[in-house]
Amino acid sequence: MSDKNTDWQPPNDNFNVREERAPWGRYFVYMLLLGAVAAGGIWLASQVVVTDKIPDQARIDLPAETPSEAPPMGADEAAWVLALEKDTLDGYREYLAEFPEGRFAAKAQEQIDIYDNRAWATAEQRNTIAGYEDYLTDWEDGLHADKARERVAEMKAAIDAAERDAAERAARERADWTQAARDNTVASYQTYLDQHPTGVNAGEARSRIATMRASTADTAAWNAAKAANQADAYQQYLTSFPQGAFVAQAMAAIEQLRPSVGKIFSDCDACPSMTVLPSGNDTLGALDTDETARANEKPARPVTIGTPFAIGVREVTFAEYDACIAAGGCSTRPDDKGWGRGTRPVINVSFADAQAYASWLSSSTGHTYSLPTEAQWEYAARAGANDLYPGGSLSALCAFANGASKETPVAWANADCTDPGVGRTLPVGTLSANAFKLRDMVGNVAEWTLDCNTLNLRDAPVDGSADARGSCGQRAVRGGSWFSGPDDLRYSARMMLRRGDRNDFTGFRVIRKIAG
């Protein structure tokens, strides 16, 4: 029998049948097992937790194995969950108030402490009493309450100390200011400023120092101006100190030294009234057309008065001259011839007497007085007129000149005039004034001048100064008198008298220099 007999069959026919049947049962079992594994994987995946996204409390409190259905939460846990959901100071405080010994009390306190520390950080950042007191209002028993109270106490103590120190400083300053004001000197105010540079009265102290220093300079400038006693010096003071303490005095001094043109003034109670004449040009002396002119009145020449000068508004009176006698400035008491003194023009005075009076005025007033030159006299008498005599006619002359009139028994009398004085002087200023407001420039009394006797006016000064040529033992008198007829009442008429002559028809008027 051969071992390779292919016709051999196993004795069990059923076995062969099972081997040839399709394996569906096994497939089904495999599918069930695979589904179970997949379901388990899915379930495990659903249990995986990302730990960094879950609060610590949640991670700690979750059980190791979460059942498919969580058991109901207790009141403590529910309250904690609610606190977490609110996540506020009040929420955590409410939890602690309800569960002071609760499971999550420590956690709640940790959260509360976080708010406490934040409030303290804010208070420290403000670093004020109000800031720390605000902290204590919200955290009376907070972590930093004691420190907050210490800070408040320290700050209040510092404020109290500062206030006491300020009060002491204020008291010292008041005392120092009172002393400085009492002394009222630059040094006293400077001492105050050195001690209190920003004090309440510092501005006033500086102002007073400035005022005093300005006053010192002001006074020094004023004293310098007074020492110079010149109009220009006073004007310089006004320019330097337009608001100075002596402005009024400086202006008055200028007005005295350099009165304005046309102003009438008097330098003292007993001094004659003066007026300022302007500078100008005029033709002085007799014109060729004047048939009554004498040789010593010619030739007429143009004269320039370069600077203003003041001249007496009226002739010097007895009253004014007697004041000079009383003061010791004049030595001779002139006779009034029984006509009266007072406001009548002084008579019976020599050239030297008139000079003495002018010198007394100068020494008494500080201004320069003198007799006028012939040019100054004629310039003042004409006042711009080019007629022969005031008024331009014999009849008009009567209003200006007290001369010989028809009542006077002399051949040269002016028959057109009636003499109110009847052969004597009139009180000064009785008749009309000329255009310069001057009275009695002609008539009443003849007036001494500074000029010497000359035969004519050829080569006479043309600048208004006195003519020192010729015979100076004689001096020119101008204007005629109560005894003069029309020929001697002309503007250009000249008469010569010896220096020592005294008579009842000659007086004088003065001029005053106007300071530069």
Question: Care to describe what's here?
Answer:
The structure is a single chain. This protein has helices spanning 13-20, 24-47, 56-61, 75-86, 89-98, 105-126, 129-138, 145-183, 186-195, 202-228, 231-240, 247-257, 318-327, 351-365, 374-382, 394-397, and strands spanning 264-265, 274-277, 280-284, 301-305, 309-312, 369-370, 446-453, 471-478, 494-498, 506-507, 511-513. Helix 6 packs antiparallel against helix 7 and helix 9 (186-195) packs antiparallel against helix 10 (202-228). Mean pLDDT is 89; it is low at 1-6, 10-21 and 48-55. Among the domains are: 74-183, no CATH class; 264-513, paralog of FGE (formylglycine-generating enzyme) (Alpha-Beta Complex). It is α+β, with helices and mostly antiparallel strands and 516 residues long. The protein has a five-stranded antiparallel β-sheet with strand order 1-2-5-11-6. Strands 9-8-7-10 form a four-stranded mixed β-sheet. Strands 3-4 form a two-stranded antiparallel sheet. Strand 1 (264-265) and strand 2 form a beta hairpin. Keywords: Membrane, Transmembrane, Transmembrane helix. InterPro entries: CTDL_fold (IPR016187), Sulfatase_Mod_Factor_Kinase (IPR051043), SUMF_dom (IPR005532), SUMF_sf (IPR042095), TPR-like_helical_dom_sf (IPR011990). It comes from Algimonas ampicilliniresistens. The chain crosses the membrane at residues 27-45. This is Sulfatase-modifying factor enzyme-like domain-containing protein.
